[in-house]
Amino acid sequence: MELRKTARACNAGTDDEAYLEALDMFLSGTDEKATTHAYLRRVVDRLPARRTLLDIGAAQGTTTRYLAPYFERVVCVEPSEPMRRALARACPQAEVVAEPVGEARVDARADLALLSHVLYYIPRTQWAVTTARVMEWVAPGGVLLVLLQNPDNACMRMVRHFTGRHFDVRELVGELAALAPGLVGRTGLDVVPARYHGRSLEETLTVADFLLSVPDAPSPTREAVEAYVRRHFDNEDGTYTFRHDQHVLSIERPAP
């Protein structure tokens, strides 16, 4: 897949098969799902109840499928039609809401809610509003996990270099106190490690372009991305590696 073709598809949004193809290529080379699932299992083990899972931005359902056996009910919010088709195959028992999180109507009180790598696509000024909306769907005693890449990792340094954009979930913590009473209790911040390993330059360039598909940001040239990848990620054996550790902000809703 050509770099510019991928960029156009990704910048057009997640309603494109090319976006799903690039996502699958990224996931095939990263240990992100393995490390994230291990972390989530520890969270699930500590939950006081496991009635409902709410997965916002469920994508193709890999994590939904992993967590579903631990819950009586699974509800997903996923606005992308190609993603919903993959989600239905991965987790057919899930109830799926097709609208974006800002427009979705969710009839659920989740014991565990995930807002995983969604805030990149939401204006920074709307992060707190979006979080408050999701917390309304969390049951008292339940928890919301907000996942974003650590802004200091190698991947996000590349994003900042080419787009000037900076995404830091830690900035949200200070805004939570202003939310409606009863929504936010204890909070915590963890780091979940992740590493991408590309088997070839072409594969790594496609993945880099996918990761650079920040909404409303210009697409860099192939030559510029290739030069960056060679300089920063080259293992000198034909493969390429970079870290993309994640921040996980946990927000508990107080029990009555």
UniProtKB/TrEMBL annotation:
Database matches in Pfam families? Methyltransf_23
Task: Show the Gene3D superfamilies listed in the entry.
Answer: Vaccinia Virus protein VP39 (3.40.50.150)
Q: InterPro entries attached here?
A: SAM-dependent_MTases_sf
- Name of the protein in question: Methyltransferase domain-containing protein
